[in-house]
Amino acid sequence: MGTLSFINIGRAALCAALSLTTFCGEAQVSFGHPEKFNDGWLFNLDNIEESSRPEFADSTWRTLNLPHDWSIEGTYSPDLASGTGYLPGGIGWYRKHFTYTPTPGLEKTYIYFEGVYNRSEVYLNGHLLGKRPSGYASFMYDLTPYLKEGDNVLSVKADHSRYADSRYYTGSGIYRDVWLVKAPASHIAQWGVGFETVAVKGKKATVKGNVAIENPAKGNPRPCRRESPPCGVCRGKDSQGSRALRRALSWSGNCRQTHASLQTLHICRRH
Questions:
Q1: Distance (Å, rounded) from C-alpha 118 to C-alpha 219?
Q2: Which of 8, 18, 52 is nearest to 159 (CA)?
Q3: 22, 24, 27, 32 alpha-carbon torsion, rounded to 10°
Q4: Does residue 229 surpass a pLDDT of 90?
Q5: Which residue of 26, 61, 122, 267 shows the fewest CB atoms closer than 10 Å?
Q6: What's the sign of the alpha-carbon dihedral 96, 98, 102, 106?
Q7: How high is the pLDDT of residue 208?
Q8: What CA–CA distance (Å, rounded) separates 6 from 255?
Q9: pLDDT tens figures, 4-27
Q10: What number of CA atoms fall less than 13 Å from residue 241's CA on the CB side?
Q11: How many CA atoms lie within 13 A of 82 on its CB side?
């Protein structure tokens, strides 16, 4: 069998693995129910540390929708850095007021930022969720411990005061989409699905899939390990074997928190 045939098999396996998640094609989030959280933010280009407090008076702040870059709105100056287009950096704060209503079966709520430039701090109702120095990488925080039914306030600080920090234009602020993600208490972890082809021989291949599962279940977990029958994925009606792959990639619901589930799949080619 040629190399291309095994590439196609690998693609089918990956698609089957991803089909286990509730995946939105536009979101980078690979689990749960992601919804864009871009509209109705408040913004202030000033470093007022009290901005993290939920009771802080923000009625005079500017209302905008994300993504947003405050540098491009600034004034060019030859005294600034060429890498940022001779535009200013600074420190800005974003705040969003929102109402939370619990949804049965979706006990966990996360906030996912595709990009904040840079040195960000995120607060929910005055509680620091975390800091992210990099302005390029996406990141996510669990809102659940500090989320309350009714009114909530999410505050984000972006510190681009070190504006001469790049060889090309970066912008400043929450420059990519933000997602609110609701999920069951037990769910596949973000970036938790992966697979590798460990053996190829003749018309057969063995693929191992790893699924990291977030689960706060108590007690002794059942083993999160499963192996498909030899060449079992070729026995379904789907010529690509995706239906059988979905069956083989199921896991025990009693895996403990952040448990890696190892699945061994035996794939054979019919022709």
A1: 41
A2: 52
A3: -20
A4: no
A5: 26
A6: negative
A7: 80
A8: 31
A9: 333 343 343 334 343 433 334 466
A10: 25
A11: 1
Single-letter residue type at 224: C
| Residue 118: cis peptide before it, omega within 30 degrees of 0 | yes
**Nearest CA among 206, 199, 214, 203 for reference residue 255:** 214
- CA–CA gap between residue 134 and residue 170 (Å, rounded): 12
* Percent of the chain's residues with pLDDT above 90: 52
The pair of structure tokens assigned to 174 is: 């929450």
List, in sequence order, every residue forming a beta bridge with 103; answer none if it has no partner: 106
Q: 224 with 261: CB under 8 angstroms?
A: yes
Which two tokens mark 65?
């929708």
How much is the CA Rg of the chain, to the nearest whole Å? 23
Q: What are the helix (H) ranges across the chain?
A: 3-18, 242-248
Q: Are 178 and 159 a contacting pair, CB within 8 Å?
A: no
Q: Report the DSSP beta bridge partners of residue 120.
A: 132
Question: H/E element holding 36?
Answer: strand 33-36
Contact 206, 267 (CB under 8 A): yes
Identify the pLDDT of residue 74. 94
Q: How far apart are CA 4 and CA 248, in angstroms?
A: 24
φ, ψ at 122 (rounded to 5°): -125, 130
What number is the average pLDDT over the span 56-68?
98
The predicted model scores a pTM of 0.74
Residues 6+ apart with CB under 8 A from 21: 30, 31, 188, 193
Residue 215 confidence (pLDDT): 77
